[in-house]
Automatic annotation (TrEMBL):
Protein name: TetR family transcriptional regulator
Source species: Streptomyces rochei (Streptomyces parvullus)
SUPFAM superfamilies named among the record's database cross-references: Homeodomain-like (SSF46689)
Keyword Repeat belongs to the record: no
Domain called HTH tetR-type: residue spans: 16-76
Cleaved signal peptide residues: none
Superkingdom classification of source: Bacteria
One GO molecular-function entry: transcription cis-regulatory region binding
Assigned keywords, A-Z: DNA-binding, Transcription, Transcription regulation
UniProt cross-references to InterPro entries, sorted A to Z: DNA-bd_HTH_TetR-type_CS (IPR023772), Homeodomain-like_sf (IPR009057), HTH-type_TetR-like_transc_reg (IPR050109), HTH_TetR (IPR001647), MftR_C (IPR041347)
DNA-binding residue intervals: 39-58
């Protein structure tokens, strides 16, 4: 019997698309005027949805950015999950991070810059910062079985958890470092380059016996 998950239904895809639209609207407003000056009503209006639709999906205005913050982590885990079991772990982590944070077009660059605005806004907003840390914690937990599969069951569970935690923090620190800078979405100071650099420092020895 196949264990592959069923593809999302049309309703689920529409729900996810609406949630992401709301997240982009919230990120844009937070980045330009700050979370304190932004209301849920403004976010809903910018996203083109009713306020009741906003609250159907999100508990607070800060929570509304969750889909935007999780997109990159989900893509990174998906790329790692596609790697062959037994692949050298260090190179696999770096390659997946570089691809997940790549900026192939203007739309991707715009989304990344909105994330920068969010991370800057989170510095002065504890609730928004809590969302960012929660997203990273959940990403770390979901990364554990992916790492275990990549090691083909050969790694100690403690080592697997340590790698998942270190790799997640490497991406987080890369994003926060970039957000504090004026570097562009591509180039030496971009998130992809910083993530690879962080991962090389933390897990570069994993591909050596």
């Amino acid at each position: 019997m196949s264990t592959e998950p069923s593809p999302p239904s049309l309703t689920e895809r529409r729900k996810a698309a609406t949630q992401l639209d709301i997240a982009h609207a919230a990120a844009e407003l937070f980045g330009t005027q700050g979370p304190h000056a932004t209301t849920a009503e403004e976010i809903a209006r910018r996203a083109g949805v009713a306020l009741r639709t906003f609250y159907r999906y999100f508990r607070s205005k800060q929570d509304a950015v969750t889909p935007l913050l999780t997109v990159g982590a989900d893509r990174w885990r998906g790329l790692l999950a596609d790697a062959e079991p037994g692949s050298p772990l260090g190179p696999a982590l770096r390659a997946a991070a570089e691809e997940a944070l790549a900026v192939p077009d203007a739309r991707a660059a715009e989304a990344l810059l909105r994330t920068r605005g969010l991370l800057r806004a989170a510095q002065d907003d504890p609730a928004l910062r809590a969302v960012w840390y929660r997203v990273n914690q959940e990403s770390e937990e979901r990364l554990v079985p992916v790492i275990a599969r990549l090691t083909d069951g050969a790694a100690d569970p403690l080592e697997v958890r340590l790698v998942a935690a270190a790799a997640t923090d490497a991406i987080r620190i890369a994003m926060e470092t970039w957000a504090d800078s004026d570097a562009g979405a591509t180039g030496p100071g971009a998130p992809a380059a910083l993530a690879v650099r962080c991962l090389e420092r933390l897990v570069g020895g994993l591909d050596r016996g």
